[in-house]
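Human: Note token order:
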Amino acid sequence: MRRMLMVRSRHVLELTESPRGDLEDRVDGLKSLVDNTAFSALTCIKKNRIVYERCASDFSTRQPHSIQSVTKLHIHLIVGRLVSQGLLDLDKPVQHYLPDIGSGYSNAPIQSLLDMAVDNDFSEDYSDPLSDCYAEEIALGWRLPPEGEAEISLADFAGSITGYRPETHLGEIAYKSANTDVLTMICQVVCPRPLCVEIEAIADAVGYEGTFYISKSADQHPAFSGGACLSSRDLARFGLLFARYGHDVHGEPFANADFLQKTLLRRALPMSPPKNWLRYSNHTMTDGRMVGHAGYGGQFLMVDTQTEVSCAFLSVLENEEGYDDSYMAQVAETLKELCLAVG
């Protein structure tokens, strides 16, 4: 990353190791996942006990790894806190908070961005080298611009998106990481303190053992659309913040528990098959009990909100697109079964 914020927690959530030796026999597909050549690490925690943990021979569960779009869960936390403070109205159009935004988002309700329910001209097709997502990566500082061209800001990139179509009736989500970029800019405008301070507060609530890393755009916006790195142990710790309904490492209220509860229960568009058993609600993936998020390249965080189980899975797909829907569906279903078996 060209620019990156690094944050440590004030107090570490201490974990005990209490492995369950029967889980690979009880959970279909678990052994094949951890034996896959793409596999990096998997940590499953119930409350503060590590009940299952594996890593590749050349990796570690304490080693930082890109978590890609699992980073988007930070927007859920920050938006929930802003809603609870009366600082953000999700029914307002984007232009209410960002009057200079382009036509791709100006009239879109903020709630639609949170639910990946916006139809506009932004394309996120990693098999297409001309897809807009690669220009987005330049704006986020993940790629250099073409020789002789200036680096664009995130605001310039998001403002260049056109073509909002409010009349479209979507049957499933229209996944666009640009939605997260626009939500990031809204949060930056509305939040009474810098977003880097919000990140520090989240880190303190989680209790990371290692370091939380997140890249920043040229105009200093954190890359919540997919720019964070964590170890599998610390990603599982992050999931426990959702399992505890927003209570921090000391048991004190931190995130908006009511916002999370409504997120689990409200109607929202389904994911595309074969993950259509999950809905996309308020920047999370949920079936009403499980909550989490997938990440490009083979990442997934799955949390059981009823039994306080958090499973963090990291991998590196090496196919041309860096993505495989059937593989990600297998990961999601296996992690759900692992959560249920542990709980």
User: Anything to note?
Assistant: Residues 325-342 form the longest helix (18 residues). The mean pLDDT is 96.
